Amino acid sequence: MAPMRLRFAPSPTGALHIGGARTALFNWLLARHNEGVLLLRIEDTDRERSTPENVSQILDALQWLELDWDEGPVFQSEREERHREVLQALLQGGHAYRSNATAEDVAAYKRLYGAERGFRGEATAGDRKDGAVRLHVPDGESTVVHDVVRGDTRFDHVHLDDPVIARADGSVLYNFAVAIDDLDAQITHVVRGEDHLSNTPKQLLVLRAARALGIGAETPEPVYAHLPLLHGPDGKKLSKRHGAASVQELRDAGFLASAVRNYLALLGWGAGDDATFLTTPELIERFTLERVSRSPARFDQVKLRWLDGLHVRELPVPELSDRLLEFLQLTDPEAAVAAAADRGLLEGAVAISQEKIQTLADFWPLARLFFVGVAEDRAARERWLGEPGIASVREARTELATIERFDLPAISAALEGLVQRQGVKPREVYQPLRVALAGTAVSPGIFETIELLGREETLRRIDATLVG
RNA sequence: GCCGCCAUCGUCUAGGGGACUAGGACGCCGCCCUCUCACGGCGGUAACACGGGUUCGAAUCCCGUUGGCGGUACCA
């Protein structure tokens, strides 16, 4: 059996949005699940908006998501010659024609014939070469789109305008380019957002006109699958307003790529049982088009945070440390330098912070005390370092200075003993100590923190507190 | 306006005529654990948009209404 051939075809009009990322992911999962081929095609026929910066943004986003492709990237703009060739064939074969009709003409037509009749242009007389190229839509017929997730949808031609497939200057438009490019690339499955469902009959019409002329006649029509759209938490179209709307923003907010893949896969697709935490190999193993749903989903960052926490906890410490370093380099270069200075310390801090963070962004506020010293938090000092707090820290210092081996069991035994002897609540001892060592009221476990800091540094910070 | 798609807890979803007094997850609330923050455990809150059919029986099938979204560009 011929391999499944899929494509992801973003238009570089800005950052890769979450919806686009989801489409890329589904194509990728499908390709990997079926051992097929994934083609990356950049749809840059819109010269105004397609900039090199936008292209690299998309490539960066895919790379970060760890979604690779097997062929391409193919730039649609580089296929101009082929497009003109097929366009000529369509023109000569009588499937398309030049029309001088302007937008105003079309509007006038609709006023005249009512909104239920699609626009049919007049072919420009003689051999004049000006005017846009329109595809001839056969009247009185209809085109049925067979869609794997939606079933059959019939589009009656009466309602369809003869679509403009090329500008007056001969450059082709989206619905033409897509059909020809998919045909030439022998794409077997077109998987994309539902916003393209209404475009599909036009593309099918282009495809069939070309095939009628013998162009790609041996290539079967692709199978279509239109994915439900993604909306913001308010049900409206996803935008910056909703927080992170692009892959870059997700990365900068400290999410793990594996968690983003996991979460995105759950939007419009379900494993069937109640599996929620799914590793990427599991996603590949279980993903099928048949389980894609038809209704739109909302992007909810709260659930993504939860899922990210699960993925953080699954990562081996060395790997999580690498991710953390990458993240800090991106968002806080100074912190990155400090964190990278001592690998052992970094991994120690990561190990005792791992189950307390949900995203990479949560790490530094919790563990900065190991790398850049005591923080300035007035409220924490006032709350915990009053008379009794200071007294308690002084007691703790004596304990910590005298234990033999400065390790976790000894430290916890010493401090627990102190709590018992003083007959106070544990927090009355631990919180002042925490503020003395971290400067803040939040840190990893106090015993673990002290052990990692080491006796010398622990006592030094305590002394600084007692003096100050 | 016209054409089309969609419609189960606040959110993601399971469900595809009787197994549904509708299941799971996130969130939220309460309790437990507890040195902070988290994690974890237990319990709770909460939905079949509405109206007609079809059927012995409908969340599941059909029609309509409403709502949301998409398309209707010499954008993609």
Blueprint (SSEs and pairs):
Layout: E1 5-8, H1 18-33, E2 37-42, H2 52-65, E3 71-75, H3 80-92, E4 96-99, H4 103-113, E5 132-135, E6 142-147, E7 151-156, E8 164-166, H5 174-184, E9 189-193, H6 200-212, E10 223-227, E11 230-231, H7 247-252, H8 257-265, H9 280-286, E12 297-298, H10 301-314, H11 317-331, H12 333-340, H13 343-353, H14 363-372, H15 378-384, H16 387-402, H17 408-422, H18 426-438, H19 446-467
Parallel strand pairs: 1-2, 2-3, 9-10, 11-12
Antiparallel strand pairs: 4-5, 5-8, 6-7
Helix pairs in contact: 1-9, 5-6, 8-10, 11-12, 11-13, 13-14, 16-17, 16-18, 16-19, 17-18, 18-19
The structure holds one RNA strand of 76 nucleotides.
Question: Descriptors for this entry?
Answer:
single chain, 468 residues, mainly alpha, 3-stranded parallel beta sheet, 49% helix, elongated
Descriptive overview:
- With 468 residues, the protein is mainly alpha-helical.
- The protein has helices at residues 18-33, 52-65, 80-92, 103-113, 174-184, 200-212, 247-252, 257-265, 280-286, 301-314, 317-331, 333-340, 343-353, 363-372, 378-384, 387-402, 408-422, 426-438, 446-467; strands at 5-8, 37-42, 71-75, 96-99, 132-135, 142-147, 151-156, 164-166, 189-193, 223-227, 230-231, 297-298.
- The strands form five sheets. Strands 1-2-3 form a three-stranded parallel β-sheet. It has a three-stranded antiparallel β-sheet with strand order 4-5-8.
- Helix 16 (387-402) packs across helix 18 (426-438).
- The longest helix has 22 residues, at 446-467.
- It is elongated, with a radius of gyration of 31 Å.
- The protein starts with a strand and ends with a helix.
- The mean pLDDT is 92.
- It binds one RNA strand of 76 nucleotides through helix 4, strand 5, strand 7, strand 8 and helix 5.
